[in-house]
Amino acid sequence: MTGTSADVSIGGKTIELPTRSGTIGPDVIDIGTLYKNTGAFTYDPGFTSTASCESKITYIDGDEGVLLHRGYPIEQLAEHGDFLEVCYLLLYGELPTKSQKDDFDYRVTHHTMVHEQMSKFFTGFRRDAHPMAVMCGVVGALSAFYHDSTDITDPHQRMVASLRMIAKMPTIAAMAYKYHIGQPFVYPKNDLDYASNFLRMCFAVPCEDYVVNPVLSRAMDRIFILHADHEQNASTSTVRLAGSSGANPFACIAAGIACLWGPAHGGANEAALNMLAEIGSVERIPEYVAKAKDKNDPFRLMGFGHRVYKNYDPRARIMQKTTHEVLGELGIKDDPMLEVAMELERIALTDEYFIEKKLYPNIDFYSGITLKALGFPTTMFTVLFALARTVGWIAQWNEMIEDPEQRIGRPRQLYIGAPKRDYLPVSKR
Ligand code: SDX
Predict the structure, then answer these.
(1) Which PANTHER family match (predicted)?
(2) What CATH number is given to the structural domain containing 306?
(3) Is 364 noted as a catalytic residue in this protein?
(4) What is the span of the domain harbouring residue 80?
(5) Which residues are registered as beta bridge partners of 20?
(6) CB atoms < 10 A from the CB of 384, how many?
(7) Do residues 176 and 134 lie in contact, with contact meaning Cβ atoms separated by under 8 Å?
């Protein structure tokens, strides 16, 4: 690959493809004319070497364990900012001034209620329905309520829909939790910050006042920051693909929620805690590490490994610190799960297999322990991931709509099925 082009030779023909460089990170080869000029497609089923778009929102350096949101390191945002400030940054591209932040907080706070009719949706579900199934259904139904913000060609309507999604996800997530446990819904309160409002909607009951613990709400807010956005991960790519057809933003976010649910993606936080519970004690760790290394065993260490991070996930480090803060604040001394998790991490990080395959703990490894300590059942863990990731999805969706190069996403294939053949009547089969 030269400075500005790459030569591709196929079928005795060589063509020159232009290359592009970003601000930081790998260059790309623009293969847009490849099929027209060679009759061949590229083949990359997991998109391990494929850039789907240009983006200014998030940059990840997997080898160095670096995560930047609009250029700011996740460590600094998690330390100094709050979740709504990160939402503003992801949506608008710059950190807000004091007045911009106050205005943004006010606008989000005053969109937190959902249409009263929406509460009727929940009654159609069984109480033991997985909350992620409820989220897929209820969030998709939002488009039936907000016809005034589904014209995706109108930047104002796009921003209204964006704010509505960020504001209403905590309310819907809390309603899914309350319905799951058979308690009445709790309305948002406008004098609480985003994370405190969410914790109160989840854990308050009509019989007594709910006092927010500032240490726990700060931890919840930081957990939201850590999950806000992550480049072109599977669920974000799902939202972009759904949006490329012109689908309304609420339907696109519902598609992202569905994709995030998978245990290889956002569902890993629930799977990781279930795995730690199944391991149960430090003595049983070697048995599970051996299963994870056994090619014939589908078992994987949930919360380990990553498509991009081949070093420690910087979010996992911050999450581990938050875990200790929350357990300390709650006076949970020797949590058996944490003991297993830390010993499992120590063993895995010194094991030749994990070193060779560059498998490190990812954000989902410690989040489950923290969320369980905060009082959430494991079935709510991916709901919390979806709540936080909504801002990333919606920021990436806006960027896709505004990108002049974006067209409907329509990949091709390598066909390996039957060649053309004639129909046989059943008497001749
Ligand atoms: C998230 O993309 C994102 O940014 C996602 C995310 C986000 O913020 O949006 O970061 C959130 O999804 C984090 C990942 C959560 N998932 C898990 O923790 C589930 C466990 N991890 C694996 O399923 C896996 O590591 C993936 C899915 C995360 C990554 O899969 P890849 O990149 O396709 O890697 P792979 O499956 O091809 O694995 C490479 C090798 C394989 O061995 P070989 O076939 O080369 O011999 O590593 C092995 C795998 O068997 N391997 C593991 C392992 N993960 C990979 N072996 C044991 N345990 C594991 N966890």
Answers:
(1) CITRATE SYNTHASE
(2) 1.10.580.10
(3) yes
(4) 70-405
(5) 28
(6) 26
(7) yes
